[in-house]
Design goal:
- The protein is mostly beta strands.
- The protein contains one helix and four strands; from the N terminus they run E-E-E-E-H.
- A four-stranded antiparallel β-sheet has the order 1-2-4-3.
- Strand 1 and strand 2 form a beta hairpin.
- The longest helix has 4 residues.
Length: about 80
């Protein structure tokens, strides 16, 4: 077997992808935001006849952009309740 000399090529250290910006994109455990549970969340009752939940206790500002308001009551889909 013959051994080929690849001296003319670049080494592994010189090779980089065209998209790389030479920054490390790894995070240490302490850099990630921690999950914070709320003391008291909003409360809703499931309305089987509508297939939606009626929010009876609104806490927080997320309800400004979530749900459907009909007759002064806020209704949300199953996906929004979880």
């Amino acid at each position: 077997m013959e051994i080929e000399d690849w001296a003319g090529g670049s080494s592994d250290l010189e090779v980089s992808s065209p998209d790389s910006d030479n920054e490390d994109h790894c995070y240490a455990y302490g850099d990630l935001p921690k999950l914070q549970f709320r003391k008291g969340g909003s409360e809703a009752h499931w309305r089987e006849d509508l297939g939606m939940a009626e929010v009876v206790s609104i806490k927080g500002r997320m309800w400004i952009t979530t749900g459907i308001v009909r007759g002064g009551k806020l209704y949300i889909f199953l996906e929004d309740t979880l």
